[in-house]
Amino acid sequence: MSDIRHSLLRRDALSAAKEVLYHLDIYFSSQLQNAPLPLVDKGPAELLEEFLFQVPKERGAPPKRLNSLQELQLLEIMCNYFQEQTKDSVRQIIFSSLFSPQGNKADDSRMALLGKLVSMAVAVCRVPVLECAAFWLQRTPAVYCVRLARALVDDYCNLVPGSIQTLKQIFSASPRFCCQFITSVTALYDLSSDDLIPPSDLLELIVSWIFEDPRLILITFLNTPIAANLPIGFLELTPLTGLIRWCVKAPLAYKRKKKASLSNGHPPNKIAKDSTSGEDRDCHQLYSKLHLSVLQVLMMLQGHLTEKNLYGRLGLVPFDHVVPLVEEINRLSDELNPLNASKEIELALDRLAQALQVAMASGALLCTRDDLRTVCSRLPHNNLLQLVISGPVQQPTHGALPPGFYPHIHTPPLGYPAHAAHPALPAHPALPAHPVQTFIPGMTFPYRPIR
Fold first, then answer.
1. Which tens digits make up the pLDDT trace of 188-205?
2. Is 234 helix (H, G, I), strand (E, B) or coil?
3. Which are the contacts of 14, defined by CB distance < 8 A and separation ≥ 6?
4. pTM summary value
5. How many Cα atoms are found within 13 Å in the side-chain-facing hemisphere of 268?
6. Phi, psi angles (nearest 5°) of residue 129
7. Which candidate, 144, 43, 131, places its Cα nearest to that of 87?
8. Between these two residues, 407 and 238, which has the higher pLDDT value?
């Protein structure tokens, strides 16, 4: 690699970057013939950092910087390389070696270039780059996935009005990327503050994708070999938990936002008030459509989990994520005051109850009724939620029961002790058979009204 480095030092920045990609292609193509998952050696990694991310090798040396035109040309070189490389395995390993975080000073340059590359791939519809980015999102810690999501949202929702339509068109080109993008966006916008409420354009985009084909949410889950224990700190297999969080918290989060705008001492004028009110009304309708789609996807899961032999073993809606969601709802309900937000609280709890019920029935949420009763005990009263935590829920897998068996076992409502089962009654002796009555047509029967 030292000979290659000396030859690259004599070139300009763009030709050196192109040459690095060429050498990496040869290196990994030969490595893949010997091992299915080759490791990236120190030499190639250093070449990438020095000649693509412009990180100087010598300590104390000033960092090199490309001007805007050179950076655009570098992105075009990279886009063309991934487009022209026909072997998917080579594309994946080179994309991973380029953009997998290494925990060093090159990571900032790495993430900045990745955001611009994926943004360009969206603009010019470079499907191979989008597919590589989808796998990268699946295999990279969530903190970096959120940074990429934020870069794309800034480019297509905030920077240029109307450019969201460009992002919308990749739905048919790369559904896998769309699924991973939704997962990372729901991790970014958790509605914990007014700044973390998803922009209305982004919300409309995601709802349109999912409402058109709810199975989009499950693409990564259906096309990935899965173990029962998922790694911690990475994106979830599906965006289901994040979307449930959006639907449940939305009524309370928008009410909090409205309350904050009224209490800042500057009430909006009539035009601004009407505009904000109409936008909020549109968003609430979008959340209703999204909630319906999420319930439809949850109902599909039982068959898919059974087919993958993961029914009762893998919770796609982890109970560990339901607990903080319930705590957030409880905190928001107290903050808003039930007297002023009764409708919003009722809607949020109704959606929570529906999501919990369908998730348990389909095997997506693995927990006991006692677990739910404990977690939801501090929430405001809600009739539907009361039925869910007291009525039939998904029981633990039993060897004698077929997968998907849903026993309708009812227990007393909260506050009433459970009674012991009654002893079995003795069997009654057989009764003599009654004589068969012959029907006589035309015969009248006396009728006297009861006084």
1. 999 999 999 999 999 999
2. strand
3. 70, 73, 74, 77
4. 0.82
5. 13
6. -65, -40
7. 131
8. 238
